Amino acid sequence: MSRYGGGDDFRGRPRDRSRDRYGGGGGYGGGRSGFRGDRDRGRRGPEQPGGGAEHLARIHGTEEDRVNCPFYFKIGACRHGDRCSRLHNKPVFSQTILISHMYQNPVSQAIAQQGDANSVDQRKVDEEFEDFYEEIFEELCKYGKVEELNICDNLGDHLVGNVYAKYEDEEDAAAAQKALYGRFYAGRPLVCEFSPVTDFREARCRQFDEGTCTRGGYCNFMHIKTVSRSMQRELERLYNRGKGSKRAGSRSRRKDERAEHKEK
């Protein structure tokens, strides 16, 4: 019985030489074979190094690649979305999950409602962002050790509010993706998927990090909004100890400590 199901097993049948598609007296001899020998290889010239699969691997995700979208490969998002002429290869598993548009950027909201961001209080924005960052960091650490948490400060539709979390293990990322998908945050459903981005050095805008980006919030590379190093160290100590680890503190205590510090 064939392992492909249905009918009898094709193995063991006598070969009909008269119907051999290679012609002649059977096998590969006789007529003109589809397989070329050494003489034909000589006519074609020497084989070029770096061709075939090696060439495709080298150009994958670059501007030379006419099949796969380089922006989706590097950044996990593309401004053309489903209308892009190149493929967006979504991974089945990854160390990184993307929660699209989770962070409600006050600048983006002000532009949408008032046409400009002049009314935005930057100090308030930063304080609210710290609360958001801590809340999501604490939640993500429940599923495993988080190597990186990157939140986009971009204003473009495909990047605004995107939250990228890279875990130490793919299994932890899978647990987080499964747990978060379909949940609500601030009254909005979370859309959580695996991201191809595992090296954020290629994804982030170097000019923005240096304070020299001229494209502003509509740059196609990540403008990553950060918290202070001291706060990041404290969050690592409190929450980021891997699955099953005992937490060293709570968000409510952190907020009380921050309020006391401001009063002083």
UniProtKB/TrEMBL annotation:
Residues 23-34 have a biased composition (Gly residues). Residues 63-91, 199-226 form the C3H1-type domain. Residues 1-59, 238-264 are annotated as: Disordered. A zinc finger (C3H1-type) spans 63-91, 199-226. Residues 243-253 have a biased composition (Basic residues). It is found in: Nucleus. Residues 1-22, 35-46, 254-264 have a biased composition (Basic and acidic residues). It comes from the Eukaryota. GO terms for cellular component: U2AF complex. Residues 95-197 form the RRM domain. This is Splicing factor U2AF 35 kDa subunit.
